Amino acid sequence: MKEFIRNIKGTKDILPEESSIWIYLENYIHQFFAKFGYKKILLPSFENTDLFLRSIGKETDIVSKEMYSWIDQGNNNLTLRPELTASVVRAYIQHQLGKQQKNHKLYYIGSSYRRERPQKGRFRQFKQFGIEAFGSEFPEQDAEIISIAYLLYDSLGIKNLNLRINSIGSRESRLEYIKKLKEYFSKYENELTSTSKQRLIANPLRILDTKVDFEIELVKTAPKIIDYISDDDKQHFEEMMIILDNLNIPYIIDDYLVRGLDYYSRTVFEIQTNSLGSQNALCGGGRYDYLVEELGGNHTPAIGFAAGLERLILAMDNTNHQFICNPDIYIISMGDKALKKSFKIANDLRITKDLIVINDTLKRSLKAQIKDANRLKARYSIIIGEEEINKNIVSIKNMETGNQEELSIDKIIDYF
Ligand code: HAM
């Protein structure tokens, strides 16, 4: 026997019994974002590596150790996208969307790739859905984004949602905080991990993302960013909270939430739920008022969030039964002539009546086809044999009630 090649660690095959919830949720997300006026953007799965270095930041976990990057045959340095925000911003600048109108509200659903250690809720290829709003600097825009994220989970019945928010201030006001943070962590420099030592020099904010127990303890008594941000930043944050209060969206202020990507300013947030284990973040996002400029565009305030579809599915904790689309009709055909006819009837029903219709292509016995129709939970079965063809009739059976009747073949379409 030939050697069998398995899928790559951290990737996942979604088999038919599981795919129905994916289809259901992707449709739900399309419709949900559309209700707020957001329009879909589709982007390439790989980009120039520099795009991610310049946006996400060199000191982040993502860029320093998780990207799938390679040099292609044309000597281009390419990377499978680890997230979509950088690509959305690139497209926004490249197609000069800012010139068309003052604000753009975009959403996406697409795969992302990070070489993280796989575990429950953490994959190397995962699907992210998210939104990005360009053009508004106002706290109302922040509140809109946060409320969309919260309402999406709430409307799907996800329990124990924990919305954490913080403000990391504007770029200028953060400088003083970074100085204080450097002073604070320097006192423990000898005990820090080599990654944090490096971050202490390059970007001390990133130490706040540490996953090391000892460093997590240190973070608990570190200076708080909220004490260093400007009055304008504070006012922005407070106004946003008033809007969230008005919308009855419950939140917690998390003084040390900075998020693991470098492009943020002012508002940052995450929604967690306790049913996911250690990978408890359902989604995360924030403002990135300087990113468009840093990637070569005009100054454009922006804010967005992204969420993992796998984690949403885990949190829904449902059997997939309710999402499976059972067939409307199963056509049981006996003999080649009947099978030919049933193909034609099936297509007419699918096209004119929008029904899910199954043809048996295994040429099985009557009994086996009835069994299959029951297994698939078809609502109706249509039985066609040689005799029926000769008389130009079929038998139609309502599989729920067991009622069966004969019908002229020409009347089938009208019957449904
Ligand atoms: P992020 O926090 O890196 O932010 O990822 C957002 C969400 O993607 C996470 O909350 C999680 O649900 C999911 N996720 C991340 N990594 C994995 C993984 N390895 N396996 C499964 N799910 C994962 C961003 O990506 C930013 N682009 C969010 C954003 C949009 N900020 C502004 N706009």
Could you characterize the architecture of this molecule?
By secondary structure, the protein is an alpha+beta fold. The protein has helices at residues 16-35, 49-56, 61-66, 85-94, 97-100, 139-155, 171-186, 194-202, 213-220, 231-246, 291-294, 309-316, 336-353, 366-375, 386-391, 412-415; strands at residues 39-40, 46-48, 69-71, 77-80, 104-113, 125-134, 161-167, 252-253, 265-273, 281-287, 302-308, 329-333, 357-359, 380-384, 393-398, 404-408. It is built from 16 helices and 16 strands. The strands form three sheets. Strands 1-5-6-11-10-9-7-8 form an eight-stranded mixed β-sheet. A five-stranded mixed β-sheet has the order 13-12-14-15-16, with helices on both faces. Helix 6 (139-155) runs parallel beside helix 10 (231-246). The two termini are 50 Å apart. The model has no long low-confidence stretch (mean pLDDT 94). The site of histidyl-adenosine monophosphate has 26 residues, from strand 6, strand 10, strand 11 and helix 12. Histidyl-adenosine monophosphate binds at residues 83, 85, 114, 116, 121-123, 126, 128, 130, 132, 260-261, 281-286, 304-308, 310-311.
Instruction: Report the principal-axis shape.
Output: elongated
How many beta-strand elements? Answer: 16
Describe the sheet with the most strands: 8 strands, mixed
Structural class: alpha+beta
User: Which radius of gyration do the C-alpha atoms yield?
Assistant: 28 Å
Helical segment count: 16
The averaged pLDDT comes out at 94
Quaternary organization:
single chain
